[in-house]
Fold each of these.
Amino acid sequence: MDVTAFDQAQRFVGVKETPGVHSTPVVLAMLKLDGEWPTDDAVPWCSAFVNTICWLLRLPRSKSLAARSWLQVGHAVPLTAAQVGYDVVVLEREGGGSVGGHVGFFAGVSPAGDTVYLLGGNQHDSVNVAPFPVTRILGIRRLSTGHW
């Protein structure tokens, strides 16, 4: 049985930041995989989550805590060809701008086609599936051409 990144990411659903001065150890470990500067989990950690899942499966990864770094990993696919289990979606920051953003695993599109669902970390401070407007999509990246 092949395990996809989506399958692996689902195992983390429910992991969330610890409010206050303490940090959730698994979130801090994700942040420390590719960055030395985070000292707590009160920082953006969506890219750390995606990097951790890819590291666990030996998939290509950005090795960066920046969400937009994923635009350089794998190859581009259009939304119409996106597949649950195999693709990463990079979004611009809410409100726009040329810096920052969000990244997560493709989890589907609404029937109307105006909403994309992502399984990601740091979505309301936890790992979950959340909706985002498709107008925020900067890119969709396929990390592998074959099965994982």
Note: The first helix runs from residue 5 to 10.
Amino acid sequence: MVWILPMILIGGLVWPIMGYLVLGMIIFFSILSYFRQRYWCWYLCPRGAFLQIAMPYVSLNKATPKLFLKKWFRWTVFVLLIGYLVSLIIRSGGNIFVIGAAFVSMCILTTTLGVILGITIKPRTWCIICPMGTLQETIGKISRKINK
């Protein structure tokens, strides 16, 4: 799945409609998380695969900040990034290409953050605070409570 990341990052700059792949993945894997919690994160995520493959060679391998493990911090990251995405969509004026570009820019932003964290801390540090991971974990916990 690692090949999807450059396809969206590079291809999305040329053809912004590719950003809808990100939206499709958000929807599909949010549904999957009801049944499998963070399965996507650990086994299928293109960004996670990239970070796991590329970052060990350049990572400083420092201890993960305890702050990153705090639920409130993870939800703050979620709200800030989703708020940013929503603001881009609202400012798009309904233009489907601009909306696609919003998803591409979000993918570029989060990948950049992932690389910075991967270099300065540990390869998959981003995965700890990833908004999709936070959402999937929450949906998975809710499904376990419902299905008890």
Note: DSSP finds nine helices and no strands in the chain.
